[in-house]
Design goal:
Blueprint (H helix, E strand, L loop, with lengths): L5 H6 L28 E4 L3 E4 L8 E11 L2 E10 L14 E7 L7 E8 L9 E10 L2 E10 L2 E9 L6 E2 L6 E3 L3 E8 L2 E9 L13 E9 L9 E9 L7 E8 L2 E7 L7 E6 L10 E5 L2 E7 L4 E6 L6 E9 L12 E4 L5 E6 L6 E5 L12 E4 L7 E4 L5 E6 L6 E5 L10 E4 L7 E4 L5 E6 L6 E5 L12 E5 L7 E4 L5 E6 L6 E5 L11 E4 L7 E4 L5 E6 L6 E5 L11 E4 L7 E4 L5 E6 L6 E5 L10 E2 L12 E4 L5 E6 L5 E8 L2 E2 L3 E2 L18
Antiparallel strand pairs: 1-22, 2-22, 3-4, 4-5, 5-6, 7-8, 8-9, 9-10, 9-11, 12-13, 13-14, 14-15, 16-17, 17-18, 18-19, 20-21, 21-22, 23-24, 24-25, 25-26, 27-28, 28-29, 29-30, 31-32, 32-33, 33-34, 35-36, 36-37, 37-38, 39-40, 40-41, 41-42, 43-44, 44-45, 45-46, 47-48, 48-49, 49-50, 49-51
Amino acid sequence: MHPISRRRLLQGCAAAGALAVLEAGGGAVAGAASPPPHQWIGAGPFAHVYDPSTPGGRRYLNDHTLIKAAGRWHLFGITGAVAPPGRAPDSAAEVSFAHASAPDPSGPWTTHPDALTADPAYFGEEHLWAPHVIEAGGTYWMFYAAGGRSGAAINLATSTDLFTWTRVPGGPLFRGRVARDPMVVRIAGQWVMYYTELSGQDAGGGNGGGGRHVVAFRRSDDLVHWSEPGIAFTDATTEATVSVTESPFVVERGGWYYLFIGPRNGYDGTDVFASRNPFSFGLDGYAGHVPGHAVEVVTDGQEWHASAAGWFHQGLRLAPLQWRDVPPPWQSADNPVAGLDVDGRLTVFALDAGDGALLRRVQLGPQSDTWSPWESFGGPAGAVPTLGRNADGRLEVFSLDPGGAGLHHRVQRPDGGWYDWEVFGGAAGAAPAVARNADGRLEAFALGPGGTAIARRRQSSPGSLTWEPWDGGFGGPAGAPPVVAANADGRLEVFALAPGGEGIYHRWQETPNGPWAQWSRFGTAAGTAPRVSRDGSGRLTVAASAPSGPAAFSRRQTVPSGGWDDWQPVSGWTAGAPVLVPDADGRLEGFALSPGGSPLSHRRQVTSGGWDAADDFGEPGVRLAAPPTAVADATGRIHVFAVTTEGRLRTRVQARPGGWLPWSAFGDRPVAPVPSGSPVYWT
């Protein structure tokens, strides 16, 4: 039987354990004293530090490893030829490990000849994936995933100088269903290997099929002979979907073990889970997120760093790893955010790149293409704000304190000015989603710190400056901030991602302004928070990305305020759910950004609710930090705003429905290039 390729595992969703503990004592291996609560993990901005390209062509890095030896850092990683923009390379062609060294993880890096090349004569080795190198007993040990027609295998090569590697003569250390991405660490006097697997036959799960994506582990005394497998983490997703338990990495700190795995919340995403027991992690131990692919953790004993790579980045990236006492807040979907004010003028809010202060820029007239200068509006803030629009057109801005300490809001006056900022709520995990009820009252839905719950609050009366108390039991836990939209009959409907991306759920008002139905499953496993918009026919459309980001899909109501059609494809690789906005003739326009920030594709809804052919909507050579924001002005023309990875704001405006003017700069002030859906990094 042919093995499942890494490419198939990452693209499969487009088509579609047992607890083990140490034998001695059977419990957590940390000391008897109870440690303080686990810390929360975030990351600072990633900087590109190494390009593995050679005179022979542009190359990428994927799963990789870093090790320090004799005062110098060495990098080994999957490498291959860079694919055309927006397309993934063929992982079956990954047959060698890049090698480079540097005095510091930030560089400068020196490229060396590739460290190892696949050898089919060595027990059917056809590819080389995910090396992990450690030092023990004066020898360097490289564990890596290999295999081919003979099945998935974890292999071993050794070296005394990190340049010349020799495979052990006995062949694979073991085989598994899809065993790959090994990571080896010393725990309680034994070597422990964590690796990606599917539960089931030969993986410690007990059956021969229908397995779930897991992190398996084995133990060893000599690094050569390994125990039967156990399962350290079981995800809710199954082998019918894309793997979200890849690149496991385990770190011990302060009596807690932290498991880093991905791709989660997009291709460039790694979730972290904390546990006292290094052989038992769960979704309820969620401890943070790092916006990078195939993340490795590096420390010199003082500073901590996260390294990341991936098909779409052409090399190694490095970010400071942050250990926090409180959960880092999550970025809401839109960066920047824009809406019509009381005078019918578009108003754009963004965060200053330097200190996170709120900035505002206003259209000089409802039909004008000129704008006011950027001006300070408050802050600093912990996330790009969200907006609500009262029935009389007055904007209301909702902002999150740095670190998620509390919510604030600021209301526009009827004359176009603004009241002062006021406290709106306690600690939160993101700026709230806001929509207007059928009776004109705004309702806000806020994610709790760490995604523990979703709370709801509404205005006391339409346009009121006062609000009813929070309802802290509206929903949750959730894996991302919720989104909300109004049905054609005025009933609000909320959509939320389940923890770990297990599925999308929704809850709706049973009558306009009325009580809420119970949460109901709306879709299968998803990679990021969904988006929702209403088209000119009155029907809602929800867009979602698949786990790991190989595709995006949409689902439209059958009739306004009614049932739902089946999911249908919208785009290929995507960094998040596509942005949806209705144009002047009522048809939705969709914008999908590929991982790595380019290309940006665009599709237009057809009358039947499907989508026309995609076109390239972005600028040549420009990479975006996050999917764009799209909003219609008072004339019905759509304005698209996008933040580049350098923090420059760009805009593109419709000349007419279906026709677009070129991209142009939107002011010269740097704004924060915050990855959408990721914890905010500068707080």
